[in-house]
Amino acid sequence: MPGYNRILAVTGDCSLTLLFPKCIAEVLDIRNGDSLRWNVDGKRLIIERDYSGELTGRISSEEER
User: Is residue 14 part of a domain?
Assistant: First the structure.
């Protein structure tokens, strides 16, 4: 997917919205209302499709690595 390496971030008082190109959702088969799992690893944000349906996430600490 050349040319699609940029996304738009919109921050609010208590939320963060990341706007990806629609083709990313199509490739990952993500639909409206799907739950995603997230993980912060240093300065990397990892987002995965979550098949359990529960919103989850964690921030890695240096001790866990």
Answer: yes
pTM tops 0.85 = no
Q: Where on the phi/psi map is residue 53: left (φ > 0), alpha (ψ -120 to 50), or beta?
A: left
Q: How many domains are there within the chain? A: 1
pLDDT digits (tens), the chain, 65 positions: 556 678 899 999 999 999 988 888 888 888 888 888 889 999 999 988 877 655 555 666 554 54
**Residue 56 phi, psi (nearest 5):** -140, 165
Are residues 36 and 29 in contact, defined by beta-carbon separation less than 8 angstroms?
no
Q: Locate 43 and state its tokens.
A: 């300065």
- Residue numbers of the domain that contains 16: 8-64
